[in-house]
Every structure is written in structure tokens, then in C-alpha cells.
Amino acid sequence: MIWLGIETSCDDTSVALVKDGREILANLISSQIDIHKIYGGVVPEIASRKHLETINPLIQEALNVANIGFEDIDAVAVSNGPGLIGSLLVGVAAAKTLAITLNIPILAVNHLPAHIYANFLEEPIPELPALALLISGGHTCLAIMEEHGKFKFLGETRDDAVGECYDKSARVMNLPYPGGPEIDRLAKEGDGKAIKFPRPYMSESKYEFSFSGLKTAVLQYCRKNPDFNLSDTCASLQEAISDVVVRKTINAMKDFNLKRLMIAGGVACNSGIRQKFESECKKRNFEFFRPRPILCTDNAAMVACCAYYEYNCGKRSDLLLDVYPSASWEYYIK
Ligand code: KG4
Ligand code: ZN
After folding, report:
1. Which residues of 12-25 are buried (b: 16+ CB within 10 A; e: fewer)?
2. Which atom of ligand 1 is the closest one to the Cα of 185?
3. At a CB cut-off of 8 Å and minimum separation 6, what does 210 contact?
4. Which of 201, 262, 281, 303 is the 20 to 30 Å CA partner of 253?
């Protein structure tokens, strides 16, 4: 069964063709970073207009890459929230049009579990239950994936997402948008112990995160020290973020007696976080799953994969489906 996936929730237009939930026939991503870079962040109005220009040619290109025709698509999947309302509407309109004209099923999926499903496009497939950590530009959450389509929500960030902390701190240091990959690159040349940034562990709320204070600490440090060492500051920030993310996640693994960990989302590309998880999981004999970087950031293959599994669990949508810009994972799980 070939699913065509569409992802337009933020500033990436992506179309994928995935066979039987596993085999990626095409996964095309048209990034808008060069446009939004000029403004230092995503401009929603520009993002939706750009999706509109890109989506149809990208669908055709995905079919060309996979060397198949419209008649070979069995079903269409689209992420309908959370995200920017104008951007989501473009993807949903395109998906509905395909569903009507090709007379095939349509399934809307939540963007957050879709990120986690990127792990099921890799080898080996994680067995369940497993702990799922989503770290992206808009979200930071921990959940237990008990079985396909069934998550137990543990906690999320109370304020900024971890990717937001990277991006906003990068802005303070005059680094281009998106700041996460820049900080990651510069951190490799710096001393992570040079500056003692706070570790917001919030022991009273074990599975919740808070990153806005850390972002402010970077701002204050850079203001007080105009000649700050860029790579040391990046390395120290990366150290603080990875300490918090890894410790909280490993504690959740222990608390729930889990043996498998999956990470996902754009920040899951981060080399410091990946390395720390690798060594902590090895020490404890936990199986560690992380998608290759191109499947960590926003992409439509994860949407098609998620839809495949959820459809098999009995989930259905119809042409009246709507967009949910602030759909939370907690709501989805209930
Ligand atoms: O998952 P994603 O593409 O979009 C959302 O759903 O939010 O994540 C984008 C986020 C941005 O904040 C970006 O700075 C961050 O992922 N990111 C990274 C790295 N690569 C991307 N953060 C830290 N280190 C990286 N290597
Ligand atoms: Zn995302």
C-alpha cells in the first residue's frame, strides 16, 4: 500500500511516498530557510504563500522520483496540527484534493507522534513499549509509546521548547537562523565547562521542562561579556541543554522500567545530545533509537509512516477534517 504524505506545518514543504509504512520511495523537502533567514525567524504569511507555490510541483516531483503515477497512490496522509494555521491549510487542501480526485482514503495525523514515527522508518524497528522524547523547534515532550497509536503522556515544556532555546540564544550571539545547527557546529570547537549556565531540572515536576530561564541566562551573559568567546558559549549552552534533556529522559526510563528509548524532532540531530544518549544508554543496556538527521527535522515520510500504522489501528478521517494549529499531544493522547 503506497501512502502519499504531506507536511506543511511550519516552513518546510514536504511530500513523500512510502510503501507499507517502511519503504521510502521519495521524501522531498523544500526548505524556506533562505527566505526566513532575512527576518531572523519564520514569517507565517510568507511561509503559507511559499507552500502554495511549492506543493503541486513537489507532488509531481515525488511521483517522478518514485517512478510511479497518480493512479499508484493508495491513500493520502497530511499533518493537520500543531503548526501555523495558513501553512497547515495548504497541506490539508492539497491532501483533500488528491483524496477527492483519486477517490482514495485520507488520514490526518498529529505532527508530534508523526515525528516519533520517523524511528519506524529505520532499521531495526523499535519494539514496544518504548519511551519517546520529542525535541523540536516548537515542542519538548516525553511520552511512553505503549503500542501503535497509543501513547501515555508524561510531560512537556512549561515555556520554551528546546529548539527555541537554541534558536533564540543563537540570535543573541548574532548567529543565523536556525541557530540549533550553528550552535552544534561551534560547540565542537569550544569548552563546555567554560561557563556555568543553569540546569533547569525542576525536581518537583520530573517530566516537565523549562528552557526560558536558560535562554535569559545566555542573554545576560552575552550582555555582561561583550567579548564573549563564541565557541565556549555555544559549547557551555549545549552542555547545559543536553545535561537536562538526557538526565530527565534517563530518569523516566528508570521510573517506568523501560528498556528502549526513541528520540525525534529537529533537535534530535544535535551531536552533543546524540552522543550523551548513546553513552548513557550503553551504560544501562538500554536500546537507543534515533532517526537519521533528515528524518529528524520536518519531513513527510514520517507523516506517511504514522498514517500507515494509525490507519491499520482503525483510525479514519474524512473530507470534513480541519486544521488544529495548537493541537497538543496531551489532547491527542486522551
Ligand atoms: O522538527 P523541526 O524541523 O521543526 C519543528 O517541528 O519544530 O525542528 C526544528 C528545530 C529548530 O529549532 C532547529 O534549530 C533545531 O530543530 N535543530 C537543531 C539541530 N538541527 C536542527 N538543534 C540543535 N542541534 C542541531 N544539530
Ligand atoms: Zn516538527
Report:
1. bbbbbbbbebeebb
2. 26
3. 157, 158, 159, 160, 200, 202
4. 303
Rg of the chain's alpha carbons, rounded to an integer?
20
- Give the count of alpha carbons within 13 A of 180, CB side only: 25
Dihedral (C-alpha) 281, 284, 287, 291: value to the nearest 10 degrees?
A: -10
Which of 211, 267, 269, 298, when mutated, tests ligand 1's pocket best, judged by the most ligand atoms within 8 Å of its CB? 267
Which residue is listed with cell 535562554? Answer: 215
Q: Considering only the top CATH level, what class is 2-116+295-328?
A: alpha beta
- What confidence tens digit (pLDDT) does each residue in 134-157 have? 999 999 999 999 999 899 999 999
* Alpha-carbon torsion (304, 19, 104, 307), positive or negative: negative
Separation between Cα atoms, residue 216 and residue 25, nearest integer Å: 44
Pocket-testing residue among 156, 166, 173, ligand 1, by greatest number of atoms within 8 A of Cβ: 166
Domain residue ranges in the chain: 2-116+295-328, 128-290
Given strand 106-109, what is the order of strands in its sheet? 23-31, 12-19, 2-7, 75-79, 106-109
If one counts every other C-beta atom within 10 angstroms of the C-beta of residue 286, the result is 19
CATH topology of domain 128-290: Nucleotidyltransferase; domain 5 (3.30.420)
User: Which residue is listed with cell 501555523?
Assistant: 84
Residues 6+ away with beta carbon under 8 Å from 272? 184, 187, 192, 238, 239, 241, 242
pLDDT digits (tens, 9 = 90+) for 202-220: 777 799 999 999 999 999 9
CB 266 near ligand 1, within 6 Å: yes
In this prediction the pTM is 0.96
- The secondary element (H helix, E strand) that includes residue 27 is strand 23-31
Three-state secondary-structure class, residue 247:
helix
